[in-house]
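Summary for the steering committee. The consortium agreed at its last meeting that each partner would contribute one worked example illustrating the joint modelling workflow. Our contribution is presented below. We chose a case with several input lines so that the handling of multiple components could be demonstrated. No manual editing was applied between input and output; the record is shown as generated.
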Amino acid sequence: MTEAAGPAPLAEAQRPAGGHDSSPVPRRAVRRLIGWTLAALTAIAVMINQRDVGIARDEVVYVQSGARYARWWIGLVTFEHGITEASITQTFGGPNATDNNREHPPLLKTLFGLSSYLLHTKLGVTDEVTASRLPSALLHGAAVLLVYCMVVELWGLAQAILAGLLLALLPRAMFHAGLACFDAPTMTLWLATVYAYWQAARARDGRRWPWRVGVAWGLALATKHTALLLPFALGAHHLITAWRAWRTTMDPARPTGVLAALRAMIGYRWRLIVSLVVLGPLTLYVVWPWLWFDPVRHVRDWLVFHASHVHYNYEYLGHNWNAPRFPWHVALVTTLFTVPAATLVAAIAGAGAWLAAWRRGVRATGAPVLLLALSAAASIGPFFFGTTPIFGAEKHWMPVLPTICIAAATGAVWAAHAAAGYASALIASRRARPAPALTPAPRLSAAAALVGGCVVLASVAELAAAEPYALTWYSALAGGAPGGADLGMNRQFWGIAARGVLPQLSAAAPAGKTYVYTHDASPAWGLYQRLGRVPAALIDAGWEQGGIERSQLAFVIHERHFNRHDYLIWKSYGTVQPIYVLRTAGVPIVSVYRRPR
Amino acid sequence: MNTGTVRDSVLGLSARPSPIAVVPALLLVALSLWEVCAAHRDAASVPGDAAWHAAAERVRAGFRTGDLIVFAPDWIDPVGRMHLGDLIPLEVAARMDAARFGRIWELAIRGARSPDTAGLEPVATEDRDGVVVRRYERAPAIVVADVVDRLATATTSGARPTLELAEVGFAPHRCLQASPAPGTPLRIAFPQLVLGRTLVGYVGIADVFTRREVRSPVRLDVELGGKIISSTQAGVDDGWVQFAATTAPGSADVVFILRAADANRRICFAAEARQ
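What follows is the complete predicted structure of the assembly.
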């Protein structure tokens, strides 16, 4: 990371299309400080925000698995135990597809566990959920830093700050980054791979960066299987740039034909290919002990699990989807409604500016714009096929977000500079002077601050409206959370909103032991009790009809396919009347029922 | 490749000053400011409990036993039930449809209408701080027989249906539920059922999870005096599907024939003989 911020901003001739840096170039240390400050503020903001975010159903599994993984590694390095198939299977695997959460690679879970061990168990500075969520928050800060570093080198300081801020302020991204889950970290490690690849693709020194590409991709793979899509972007980029290089360095004596072209493509930055092919899988292997024995079968099991994953229920445009074919536009519309409108429009401006400059023949070393576009396409593209599972929606294509934010930053600054240029010409003409060849830097900076500041302000407003129930939030383009509900967009998932009714449950409970039908928050109930958010006397009544019949209190976390839980409760309690309905922006997210006496 | 004179489009625009150059920036600023206001406005656009309380008071003042209370849009239903749920019996909440209700109270926000009041004109409308209370009055359907209430009199060719409050099409419905063996029709007969001029009913597949796991549709035929008078197919995404047939007033044996291609299809149906 240190070196990432190291090189000076590209010379004008090396810069890609779509913007130019107007700001005076600060010293390298200052640039680096700005990037790290943005990263730190992002991580802090995520950690502050997550305090009000409930515990996700899957998060419980990851935290518990992570604690086991961490214990195993600590035991290994402290020589408490060695490497045996039995201990690895007991910790990381098992005969069934979901034993010890073996269907997901272990990197982030291990970090959750180590963080919890250090900050909660050993130091006691925070609770286990907060400690487990810290690695994800730190990685989100790292994503902002990576974006900043890439943009500051490519376009300049104003664009870099703006891109970092826009990424940090995305409501859904901040929400996911505050969970001990994989989606935000995957975005970071995907981006780290792209960043390393770009550095390798433009570097004069061919040895410095390629190995990092493979390692970063391996870490991304060790976080989530969606990283398997990344080589499609990198491969396409490699082919295009290699072909372009081969074509432009035509030597009359050069061999021609398909084989020669193929040889040239493979030989072009061959270390990158070797790194991805060798170091990527090797890194995955090293950090995942479950692969140390019978790796082929375990990798196959992992991939088969996701290739044949059940389609969870997901509401989209008023319809409950749980089987393909899904509408081709799910990813498009969901992204439109979950990225602030100002950011989206700025991104369109940025993409337009990039395209316009490309048409004028502007080419940057390493083709970074092409790389960013391919990265986004690889991430979101499969969701246009109509067969890729759509549950979870935007969290599964989060790697598209850095590209959108970078485009937005360059677009906003481009628009600002265009306006400043016109203003300068206008002022000059009023003063009867010739228009300046270049707009004065302070005027460009002021314009960028004004336009960029407005776009950032829009993100801040959306963020404030979204949290802590950001899964229910939709942007102003959709009409906010109520507009999303009107449109029949998915209300939420993972049972996170249960956190908001815990005080009401405690208040409504009769004295003594009380059984509570905890619905989708059942897996998190024990954690809520350990955190002191639920009295020990409120006992999880169990699942489905049996749990409802046993309960005196019940709640339903509203999703369209969960309506059936309301009806089960009505039948058992003999009433359709909840005693409390938790809402965000007026949209119901949890109903609490009390059995009539 | 133009690497020697790389100038972005910004410089291109500034070299040829035109008011158009200002448009993107103005657009972005205006859109951003709109979004700031809209985000705040959207978050406060749904009436709160005070408005709902006032609207509920209005309904309570004019409510009569047998009235139907509905809420619109459907996503606000939990809030409506929190305020007025004590006036909504289970069998009304899980009704077959709204035809038998002569008076309907509709509490609506954001300009929404309930499907249960489609085509009706309100006789009274009041706006209580954003919650609009509308009262509709009409001649209700006169039900002469409800098969759901006559389950005890039914005979079957196989497994006996059960009376359920089931989720069909993500809505609650009080219905008779049965799972015919694959490929074997299940005949559920109601001997000497009192009939009016029409027999109206609905059928669907209960339980979203069974609908997800098995995707085949189900079929319900209605047989009257040995003749099929209605045949309805309900798919996994069709919800609560209506069927209707003209009948001659009097009494007759009515048979509901359920068919499924796969096991464990929870076919749910209800029907009313109406004047």
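The two ends of chain B are 82 Å apart (CA to CA). The first strand of chain B starts at residue 68 and ends at 72.
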